[in-house]
Amino acid sequence: MKEIIHEMYSEEQIADMVSRIAEQINRDYEGKQIHLICILKGSIFFCADLAKKLTVPVSLDFMAASSYGDEIKSSGQLMITKDLDGDIDDLHCLIVEDIIDSGNTLTKIRELLAARNPASLKICTLLDKPDRREIDVAVDYTGFVVPDCFIVGYGLDYAQKYRNLPYLGEIEFIEE
Ligand code: IMP
Ligand code: MG
Which terminal Cβ of the chain has fewer Cβ within 10 Å, N or C? Predict the structure, then answer.
């Protein structure tokens, strides 16, 4: 199978979008400190670029969760493969995710973090694929709303490849 990537959003378009979201966040969090929670690995570049555009004080932590096929749905469990290093009670937490697809992952992460008594808890996602939603997730900041296709680049992978692409693209599979 040959894989072809069709660019959807250029580096420049992504940078503009990140600036737009950062401005919104800077306004909304004026006078507060934000605790950014980067969901690995997909949101590393987005979270790093966003953090650099924030003018309010920022602290950072990382979490990794994994799902194997339909396991999340069938067992109702989310596997946390790396938990946060620190406590979040009384912190203004902003979860930074790569893409919301069915909504299962983020729903579970939000429940888990909400139980730790943060001062506030919001969600920022690079991409939103609403056509595939199974559980409603209230998203506070969205980069791009995308159609139902498989997207790679700028942190997002297909079989762990393509995360390093500076742009976002749709992957097409061609039989050889
Ligand atoms: P959800 O639990 O179905 O919302 O799945 C979200 C996770 O699925 C994301 O964090 C990604 O890891 C993965 N995912 C969903 N759609 C895509 C895509 O188009 N490209 C790359 N990863 C995706
Ligand atoms: Mg992911």
Answer: C
